[in-house]
Design brief:
globular, mainly alpha, about 190 residues, Leucine-rich Repeat Variant
Length: about 190
């Protein structure tokens, strides 16, 4: 089938690789069964070499594909942990081009939506919210919503694990201050 033909193209020239990754991303964006088909056909074997690629266009497409996998079933989301890529994703959230930062944020959001308290804990420790704050001051409404959702998820986790820490965050009003200073309000 199609999957067996496009996966080897991930490691071809940039133009062909981008098209193949985008096609796989569209497959993963459809239904959970299609995402599972990609996983069953060792998609990570083809993605792994691309994770160290410095090309931001390829990185963006790979992250979009991974965010679609993260948005699948809980079992599919958990497969991302085997790649050991969250440090890199968080680094790209801080330093990547805007399009890469955006997809990195979506991966983290999709992972956190299905995570347990234990699985979400490393994201709190990584200070991921600090790197997401740039979206709160952007005019990118979907990203503002995603960051607020991530904030709520992480605050719930912190509430259950570090109640004193959450009191500090709430009393600082850091997110309220950022939102009040914005001209663009979500309606």
């Amino acid at each position: 089938g199609l999957v067996e033909k496009i996966l080897p193209l991930f490691n071809c020239n940039q133009k062909l690789a981008l098209s193949a990754i985008r096609a796989a991303g569209n497959i993963a964006a459809s239904i959970d069964e299609h995402t599972q088909y990609l996983l069953d056909h060792s998609i990570y074997q083809y993605i792994a070499p691309l994770l160290s690629c410095t090309n931001q266009k390829i990185r963006k497409e790979v992250y979009w594909l991974l965010s679609n996998i993260a948005a699948g079933t809980r079992a599919q989301m958990l497969t991302l942990f085997s790649l050991n890529i969250f440090h890199q994703i968080i680094r790209d959230l801080e330093q990547g081009e805007y399009s890469v930062q955006r997809e990195a944020c979506w991966i983290i959001s999709n992972v956190l939506h299905s995570s347990t308290i234990e699985e979400a804990q490393p994201f709190i420790e990584s200070k991921v919210l600090f790197f997401m704050k740039k979206f709160l001051i952007s005019k990118d409404t979907p990203m503002i919503i995603v960051v607020v959702e991530v904030l709520l998820i992480l605050l719930r986790v912190i509430y259950f694990t570090q109640f004193s820490y959450i009191q500090v965050i709430i009393s600082s009003n850091i997110f309220v201050k950022k939102l009040k200073n914005q001209e663009c309000w979500i309606v």
